[in-house]
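retry 2 of 3: previous attempt timed out while embedding flavin mononucleotide. Reduced batch size to 1 and resubmitted. Inputs unchanged:
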Amino acid sequence: MSAPPKRSEANSQPELSDVAAASLSQEAIFAEALITSRQNILPKCLSAPGPSATQIEQLFRAAAAAPDHARLRPWRFVLVPEHKRAELAEVFAQALVDRDASATLAQIAAAREKAYRAPLLMLAVACLGPREPDVPMLERMVSLGCAIQNILLSAHSMEFGSGLTSGKAMSSARMRKLFQLQVGEEAVCFINVGSASTRKPANLRPEPTEFVSSL
Ligand SMILES: Cc1cc2nc3c(=O)[nH]c(=O)nc-3n(C[C@H](O)[C@H](O)[C@H](O)COP(=O)(O)O)c2cc1C
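retry 2 succeeded.
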């Protein structure tokens, strides 16, 4: 994982007369550095310590700042504390056996182990059922994606690593039952946060010319 930028370093401007303009410019530099240096960290590379209770609240305040058409808040997050990891492990294991009755003991153990990796683990849930006004599902998913990204960037700014995990178990009835998902709610992915044990080389990003055109 690339280290997040230091805001204090980005803002150290000696000339008082230039402070206002320079600080705006430095904020932009900080924001760009924060965004571009975030990387998906595999949960097996995330260990203790995880975020404190205060930091976790800050992560959720970041989520709450996501764009949200009609202020539906079409998403929610469910924390999986340590004492509930065994229940999630069983869901991962049983969901695998449901899909593949010939799964080996090693595969089942690996599925189970995924519940125990990151110090902070939460499920991202999309709320797609009937609402007034009926903001389209795609717009609601965009809002959830922004909320997730805000959490990832906030965690990165605190120098934690973070990663998203999903997979076939997400749509299993067992997962729905454990997380008490209501009709219209969907389990989208897990957000894993912790201290990153390894740093990866910087990610290769697509060039804007690859995904931008003009009418
Ligand atoms: C909804 C969603 C689910 C994801 N699920 C997984 C996953 O199950 N396993 C995984 O390794 N990465 C998962 N990712 C992370 C992507 O693999 C990762 O974002 C991508 O490789 C780009 O890398 P970066 O985030 O470091 O830029 C998921 C990303 C999203 C948006």
